[in-house]
From TrEMBL, chain A:
Superkingdom of source: Bacteria
Alphabetically ordered keywords of this record: Membrane, Transmembrane, Transmembrane helix
Species this protein is from: Anaerobium acetethylicum
Pfam families cross-referenced by the UniProt entry: AzlD (PF05437)
Membrane-spanning ranges: 9-30, 42-60, 67-85, 91-110
Name of the protein this chain belongs to: Branched-chain amino acid transport protein AzlD
TrEMBL record, chain B:
Family listed: Belongs to the AzlC family.
Signal peptide start and end residues: none
Biased composition (Basic and acidic residues): 242-255
Membrane topology: Multi-pass membrane protein
Major subcellular site: membrane
Keywords on record: Cell membrane, Membrane, Transmembrane, Transmembrane helix, Transport
Any one GO CC term of the record: plasma membrane
Sequence segments annotated as region (Disordered): 234-255
UniProt-annotated location(s): Cell membrane
GO biological process entries: L-valine transmembrane transport
Pfam families, alphabetized: AzlC
Protein name, UniProt field: 4-azaleucine resistance probable transporter AzlC
Organism: Anaerobium acetethylicum
Length: 111, 255
């Protein structure tokens, strides 16, 4: 351990409080007893779609198209998840199948 | 309410299936966190405390870096605020939904991770199930999985050796599934496309490590300025359930 126990506890407490603050801010700005501005309601209704798109991109940011294996494993696994989910609409099958396929690809095929 | 335990059990039973994908992802990722923290000389108790009190996946991995550097409180706080700034946007979608959460509200706010957010956006309580408890149990179970994973990783550490390379794809797959569900539910695909394209463009401009905040700002600006193109033409103004006024919808994302 680089830090002492006390130092570690202070750092963890600060990170915990900072994290909670980022989650709390919108609820302080727009308290429950006041009518939320209509524009904020609108944002709340469209943001989930945009954020989910961005989170997918975020998860795939490690893909490297220029060097071997050119992100083939990620692309194949994502396409698999999309296809099987559109077909079966079974969340567990889509996620489990996609993860197993991806692990097989990165561990056994594109080593 | 008279039937406290009945209503609780019903909400728990209805909520559990929705959390299974997060359970898989969180137990694996939590384990990875516990193992990594353990390898830096912090026992499993630290992993449990952090997963209990911080409860933010990517931030906890960043914390390991902070804990293994010289003591610097100011930059720890700054790093925390920048890594977690995206939470501010999540809260905006939950203001209406959390209004009715009563004394569970502080915990709902505290536990609003990426994955919990994505579930709360996309699932609705089945008919006859207490909606507040349903949401609360989703949040609570998700954190339970995360703490459990961290404990497993911290305790097991180097005892079990297995190649878990690629197991973190479970999280990616979860987001892809929710993306597909939302795509099918909402006729207007512009908000979803805005997110994908903003993400890609900002990675190209700002790099992989720093694109989240610029991307969120770009998304915010595009959604604000092109509002009339973004709203669902079918008249369903709240397709994500962000402002659900009616109760008892039977829809769910894995039916």
């Amino acid at each position: 351990m680089v830090l002492t126990t006390t130092e570690s506890m202070i750092i963890i407490l600060a990170i915990a409080m900072g994290t909670f603050l980022t989650r709390l801010i919108p609820f302080i700005l727009f308290p429950a007893n006041k009518k939320t501005p209509e524009f904020v309601d609108y944002l709340g209704s469209v943001l989930p779609f945009a954020v989910m798109g961005m989170l997918v991109v975020y998860c795939l940011k490690g893909m490297d198209f220029l060097d071997y294996p050119y992100g083939i494993a990620e692309a194949a696994a994502v396409l698999f998840v999309v296809a099987i989910h559109k077909w079966k609409h079974n969340t567990l099958l889509s996620i489990g199948g996609g993860t197993v396929l991806y692990m097989f690809l990165v561990q056994a095929v594109f080593k | 309410m008279k039937h406290h335990s009945d209503s609780k059990a019903a909400a728990l039973k209805a909520a559990f299936p929705h959390t299974i994908p997060v359970m898989l992802g969180y137990i694996f990722l939590g384990t990875a966190f516990g193992i990594l923290l353990g390898s830096k000389g912090y026992s499993f108790v630290w992993a449990i405390v952090m997963s209990f009190g911080i409860y933010a996946g990517s931030m906890q991995f960043v914390s390991i870096g902070i804990l293994t550097s010289p003591f610097d409180l100011a930059s720890a706080v700054l790093l925390t605020l920048s890594v977690n700034a995206r939470h501010i946007f999540y809260g905006l979608s939950m203001i209406e939904k959390f209004k009715k959460m009563g004394r569970m509200k502080p915990y709902m706010i505290f536990s609003l991770t990426d994955e919990t957010y994505s579930l709360l956006c996309s699932v609705e309580a089945p008919e006859g199930v207490d909606e507040r408890r349903f949401y609360f149990f989703i949040s609570l179970m998700n954190q339970f999985y995360w703490v459990l994973g961290s404990a497993i990783g911290g305790i097991a550490g180097s005892v079990f050796q297995f190649d878990s390379t690629g197991i973190d794809f479970a999280m990616t797959a979860l987001f892809v599934v929710i993306f597909v569900e939302q795509w099918e539910k909402n006729k207007n695909h512009l908000p979803a496309m805005t997110g994908v394209i903003s993400g890609i463009v900002c990675i190209l401009i700002f790099g992989k490590g720093k694109f989240i905040i610029p991307a969120m700002l770009v998304i915010f600006l595009i959604l604000s300025f092109f509002r009339r193109y973004m709203e669902d033409s079918a008249g369903k103004k709240n397709p994500a359930g962000a402002d659900k006024k009616t109760e008892g919808h039977h829809g769910s994302y894995n039916d």
